Amino acid sequence: MLKGIPNILSPELLKILMEMGHGDELVLADGNFPKMAHPDHVVRCDGHGIPELLEAILQFMPLDPYVEHPTVFMEVLPGDPYVPEIWDTYRAIGKKHEEQGLRETAINRYDFYDRSKKAYALVTTSEGALYANIILKKGVI
Fold first, then answer.
1. Residues of the chain with pLDDT under 50
2. Catalytic residues
3. What is the model's pLDDT at position 12?
4. What residue ranges define each of the domains in the chain, with the CATH number in brackets?
5. Is the pTM value of this prediction over 0.70?
6. Most buried in the list 27, 66, 119, 137, measured by CB within 10 Å?
7. Other CB atoms within 10 Å distance of the CB of residue 69
8. DSSP secondary structure letter of residue 35
């Protein structure tokens, strides 16, 4: 154990956060995320939701200030009336850790999957909210 590091951040996840460089992307995936969209590095965080992980990660990982949208959500499918309330939770967490907030955009499901395959790492969770997947682009300090 170390002082000041949330225990939700496993040694494996901390190592990946340290290894990532400027512009590398990290995917936080909900419990429904398909295996086909996983990059080579996968960290399991079973039993945890994305908001608690996002809170812990953003304490240490800056978002990229040089791109318009360093945060990407998976957009709602056309015709689906669901409103992803979890996005507001993400935005509130982002405002606590980033002066300009998350500066997010949403992309369609298949583009999200393709981008996830190219990410530095993917964190699987037990998040049950729909459209809860999120990509974070690492910035600089």
1. none
2. 22, 64, 113
3. 96
4. 11-137 (3.40.1650.10)
5. yes
6. 27
7. 16
8. G
